[in-house]
Amino acid sequence: MHVALYVILTLVGLFVILALIAPKKTQVNRSILIKKALPEVFQYLKHIKNQDNWSPWKKKDPNMKQEFVGNDGEIGFTVKWEGNKDVGVGEQEILNIVENDRVESKLRFFKPWKSESDAFLSVKDAGDGNTEVTWGFTGINKIPANIFMMLYNVDKHIGKDFEEGLSSLKEILEN
User: InterPro entries given for it (predicted)?
Assistant: First the structure.
């Protein structure tokens, strides 16, 4: 009986320690240089529907169901999706647009697990008619999900998808 109690107390203590030291925040971003003037790049990026042309997740499920609410390229525009196991169920809402600077949005995932993240696309003049595009997101890791984040390298996994998407974006905008 005492051994079982010690084992349970040890496991609870381990869980508490891991929950305290595990990362509370996730942040991923990637950048690419596009040989196109900033205003043209920004006009393309601020329309969420254009992500269907370069997003790696659209490629993972080209048959995903999508619903659009509002005016694309404006604050409040929301795309809702329901897809296969690779893309899940969620929505993206434009929260803020700073013309020729950045588009900020909220990502809400409902399946396979619930989470929220703040996403952005930003542009910066890189000179000589080039534009640097940065795609990123930040999210809060709640307990016990933050313990899982100790074992899962979000930056490596999602960063790879961001790199793929940005490469597709570059190809589209430069051709």
Answer: START-like_dom_sf
